[in-house]
Amino acid sequence: MNIAANHNLENKLIVITGAGGVLCSFLAKQLAHTKANIALLDLNFEAADKAAKEINQSGGKAKAYKTNVLELENIKEVRDQIAIDFGTCDILINGAGGNNPKATTDNEFHQFDLNETTRTFFDLDKSGIEFVFNLNYLGSLLPTQVFAKDMLGKQGANIINISSMNAFTPLTKIPAYSGAKAAISNFTQWLAVYFSKVGIRCNAIAPGFLVSNQNRALLFDTEGKPTDRANKILTNTPMGRFGEPEELLGALLFLIDEHYSAFVNGVVLPVDGGFSAYSGV
């Protein structure tokens, strides 16, 4: 039995941004087992709509909405349409985010006599860095501005942000993404304090290294053996393995269900096999 079925969120509305992505579409389909209504928001409407249709075909209630999380007026229009379809938001999951190759270095360490084609820190592109910070930080702040207005004073209202291992210790090669996720963790704590008197909790989950169709080729070679970078991850993960998307679900359900976490506010919960606790020695 799906563990989400143990949580009764009937008549609640869960709004998920980035819901067309691999991870958030998976979580949306799992959360549908709580009997909550699910609004899937994504710029890629086709991907979000596919997940919504799967939910509906399985007996859940869901609808997809084409949404640009960086356009305030568009988010407001989507909020108004959702209100017509389902009512107002009870739980907001800010799942929109991502990195950009223009904000990523090719090397872990700067060295002398590097090949001219190697992208170093000095070659990072301003537009790429802005894209990463805007998508991750503003892409969580703006939807919160819009949907939290309807959550004020609601029983069980809460916001879940998606942080990362990068927020605890920056990973090599991805300075913009690491900084943006650190900002998300800080924003989570800020929101938790700011909304503490009006009944909205705010927490975050920080996924460790998960295997998905999106990153499988980066973690394993054609023979199914871990790549060099994958071996570094495994060496620094005390549990000695990668996580699975299913293993985020329990943490997420714990945080969104007030019967389990009514007094939990402002935490960033690692789901990482011990990665963030391990110093490497």
UniProtKB/TrEMBL annotation:
One of its GO terms (molecular function) is oxidoreductase activity, acting on the CH-OH group of donors, NAD or NADP as acceptor. Keywords: Oxidoreductase. It holds the Pfam family adh_short. This is Putative short-chain dehydrogenase/reductase, site. Belongs to the short-chain dehydrogenases/reductases (SDR) family. Transmembrane segments: none annotated. GO terms for biological process: carbohydrate metabolic process.
